Amino acid sequence: MSLVSVLSGRSRSGRPADPPVDGPRPRGVARWNTAMVLAPALIVLIMGWHRRWISDDGLIFTRTVRQILAGHGPVFNVGERAEASTSTLWQWILVLASWTTQTDVGRLAVYLGLLCTTAGYALALHATRRLYTRTDDTPWLVPFGVLALLALPPVWDFATSGLETGLTTLWTAGCWWLLVRLPHDPRARVDYALAFLAGLGPMVRPDLAIAGLGFLIALAVVRRPRVLRVLALLGTAFTLPLLYEIFRMGYYGVVLPLPAVTKEASAADWSRGWDYVHDLADPYHLWIPAVVLAAVVLGRLAPRLSDPAGLPGRLRTIDRAAWNRFTVFAVPVLCGLAMLLYVVRVGGDFMHARMLLPGLFMLLLPILMVPANRLAVPAATVLVGWALICAITFRVPYDGIGPRGVADERAFYVGALNVANPVTAYSYVANYPRFPSAANAARADHTHVIVYPWYDGFYVTALNPNLPAPVATVWANLGMNGANTPLDGVSVDILGLAYPLAAHVELTTRGRPGHEKQIDIAWVFAQYASPDAVLPPGIDPIRVKAARYALTCGDANRGKLKELQDSVHEPMSWSRFKKNFTGAFDRTSFRFPNNPITAAKEICGIDVLAKDVLPKDKPDR
Asked: How far is CA 371 from CA 237, 345, 565, in A?
């Protein structure tokens, strides 16, 4: 069937393009179309297994899961409520799976992610096959848009990685499968299943709220429910996410997961975002599949556009069934474009291609495979040729971190660890060349805070005796540091993904995505080091004392630094939950200067350099 038939609701012969679903079909056609579903899914499974790994960010999930299983609650560090996991649903799936199987969380995240990715591709392709075989009198299908995905090495990399990408793929495919069923299945359970699944989008990833809203709009357009049904569907979609959001605001004291606060998800950086697109498009020459895909779609639309009535005129006169088909086809395309545009707006990500893959998958859903015809077959042949060359030869032109601050994350860590498939935390802790070996010995020492500068070895400083933690460690790679630090210790994240203090630092300059808020190390020593401790070389005692003053001054008014600290450190009670909930919006938007001296002046209303709280013999600043 042509794309025009989907839009117009009629076949090439002019007859209604919606024949009975259960009619007999040639056995060879059915087998071929089934192969077109299974073969790409099998390729994803094979390539994902070949390149299986867990990323350092994937290890962040594993620490939170281990804390939950240990009875400490959904926290990264005991005694500090921080939601370090961007995907709430992936975190709790790992908790349930690990509790059930008693399997290492890292390995489980890798293999479960691969299973979700493979199932997602199979389900999405099955739905696209259903989209065309329901309404076509020539049902032979050829792989099309899926070829543009299978050829990309990042698709193989993020089939695992320990992150939520596999779950995102499966969620998207599930919504697509239900959406394709919607015009032909009048049962209410399909409506409620789609509403429930679409509503879970923000719990898979916050930015999937875009796609979730799109699927809900499609549901409304196709079904046109009455008021009571609308209320029931909205309740189905939003009850669970709303309940969790209430919990998040009351427990963590903010409206968003901490990584979204750290990365300033509402801020715009279009220039860096377009650089991120180029980082994906240029190495793989994505303009080739883009031109081919666009040519086939436009080639099918051209006859209607050249008709005197034109496509707009025909769309105004087509019946409701045709509008429903148009909605099913258009919604994932529009949602995919919106998701890609959002990634560009926020400035992309530091992992090569990762944040663009969900939008590309969504965008290509209606044309993952297409009916074979005189235009589609040669176009698919061109795509196969490009895909083979891309898969075999095209790679990013840099090692490690590229000139735009984006990293081929898997290649970087495989090279650094010298492990072909690092799927456990041990692979990182034992093999990362700059990870201090003294960390293991220090874990048994209950009297020190161990500080690891970026490349300069480590220093040991006395821990604040009022802290319940036996040890605190600082290291730039949060995942491996969290894996190596005992659960009752503190793994300090100077970039703010799991450290509330760092997450709320003001963003003053744009830099590498996700690495722009490296907190002044003086704040870490002010919070964790003993007031009488001898500070390591290079740590300014004046800034440490200023930071300590800023952390404790004031009366904990809403939005102030002291109240921010209280919201995550005070024991949880009904009173604390209410304070956290009512102040969540203000607290989420609160930022303070990274310079401790400036912060003390702004927050406390005092120039600490002129007060007795600091040494008199301070240098000029």
From this structure: 34, 35, 59
Residue 393 one-letter amino acid? T
Residue 62 lies in a domain: yes
Strands 369-371 and 141-143, bridge-based pairing? antiparallel
Tell me what pLDDT residue 62 has.
Answer: 95
| Domain interval for residue 308 | 3-393
- In this prediction the pTM is 0.90
* CA separation for the pair 450, 452 (Å, rounded): 7
The amino acid present at 242, given as its one-letter code, is L
Structure-token match 């899926």, residue found: 146
pLDDT tens, residue by residue, 541-575? 899 989 988 888 865 443 488 899 999 999 999 99
Domain count, the chain: 1
User: Considering only CA atoms, which of 212, 215, 234 is closest in space to residue 225?
Assistant: 234
In a domain? residue 155: yes
Under DSSP, is residue 492 helix (H, G, I), strand (E, B) or coil?
A: strand
Q: Does residue 493 fall inside a structural domain?
A: no
468 in a structural domain: no
Q: What is the CA radius of gyration of the chain?
A: 27
Q: Which of 151, 62, 70 is nearest to 112 (CA)?
A: 62
Per the CB < 8 A criterion, the answer to whether 9 and 325 are in contact is: yes
10, β-bridge pairs: 16
Instruction: At 108, list the tokens.
Output: 């489980």
Given the structure tokens 């793994």, which residue do they identify? Answer: 491
Orientation angle between helical segments 165-181 and 357-364, nearest 10 degrees: 20
Residue 98 burial (10 A CB sphere; 0-12, 13-18, 19+): buried
